[in-house]
From TrEMBL:
Fibronectin type-III domain location: 113-213
Record-linked SUPFAM superfamilies: Elafin-like, Fibronectin type III
One matching Pfam family: Cys_box
Residue ranges constituting the WAP domain according to the UniProt record: 54-103
GO molecular function, one term: peptidase inhibitor activity
GO BP of this protein: neuron differentiation
CDD domains: FN3, WAP
Name of the protein this chain belongs to: WAP domain-containing protein
Cellular component GO terms held in the UniProt record: cell surface; extracellular region
Length: 281
């Protein structure tokens, strides 16, 4: 998640100010960033922000005397939080450094937003997703990560739903979405994040299903034929290829193919016979 936060921050005017003027030094040499910034408060703040975003995990290191088991061993098993699994941090035990469970996991971390999300859809199918934050006392800015998952079909289903996907970062308490498809069941969840970390995502929202009628798929493109072959038992084969149309509102799962054949009779007239077949997409 830290990498995603940094990417969002670089594209956001207010947040990107925290990355300068030490961003170039950090990219080239993390140690040089710290040394060059010692006498410049603004640069030092930028350096600490970058370090926190990219290397420091949520929570505090426990007191050295509280380490036990392997965590208390006199070894240098890690150098930074990024080398420790899951939520563990690289902490001193008074004799060495080991991966340990953090203390004060949620110190300074914003509360989760209220779990009830509201949905407002306009006539064009654009959806406004909004939420309400619980009261937070935080000196640092709080921003929100919105995720969605979906399933197709007549009924909502969490068992058949896609994986959760991040679709927006924002400092507001709402997001306007313009790429949702009709005939799809969507769920959403949101997390509040600051420099200290996050308490995780809200429980999944109720399902949202657009009231807009879906448009029919466009026709396939670039129809072309392969080599014509005839077998000894009188069966003729002709492979047909095409490019699928751009998917819009509905997922394409089958194609219906029509073809005609002209049958020669004893008379001079030709008889046209139409055929069709459905194949999977």
């Amino acid at each position: 998640m830290n990498g995603q936060i940094l990417t969002w921050c670089e594209g956001h005017r207010r947040c990107a100010q925290c990355l300068q003027p030490c961003k170039e030094l950090w990219d080239s040499d993390k140690n040089q960033c710290q040394r060059q910034c010692e006498k410049h408060h603004e640069c030092l703040t930028s350096c600490e922000f970058l370090k926190s975003i990219q290397m420091v995990k949520q929570g505090d290191c426990p007191a050295p005397q509280k380490a036990w088991g392997f965590a208390a061993a006199c070894v240098q098993s890690c150098n930074s939080d990024t080398e420790c699994p899951s939520s563990r941090k690289c902490c001193s035990n008074g004799c060495g450094q080991t991966c340990q469970a953090p203390a004060n996991m949620f110190k300074g971390v914003p509360l989760k937003p209220r779990k009830e999300l509201s949905f407002t859809e306009d006539k064009n199918g654009n959806l406004a997703v909004a939420w309400m934050s619980k009261f937070n006392i935080s000196m640092e800015p709080v921003f929100y990560i919105l995720q969605t998952r979906w399933n197709s079909g007549m009924y909502p289903s969490e068992d058949d739903a896609s994986k959760w996907e991040t679709i927006a970062y924002t400092i507001e308490e709402h997001v306007d979405l313009k790429t949702l498809r009709p005939n799809i069941w969507y769920q959403f969840r949101v997390a509040a994040v600051n420099i200290h970390g996050t308490r995780g995502f809200t429980t999944p929202s109720k399902h949202f299903h657009s009231s807009r009628d879906p448009t029919t798929p466009a026709a396939p493109r670039n129809l072309r034929k392969g080599n014509f072959t005839a077998s000894h038992n009188g069966v003729f084969s002709l492979p047909i290829h095409w490019d699928p149309p751009q998917e819009e509102d509905l997922f394409i799962h089958h194609y219906r193919i029509y073809w005609s054949q002209w049958v020669s009779r004893k008379t001079v007239f030709l008889t046209k016979k139409e055929n069709w077949k459905i194949i999977e997409g």
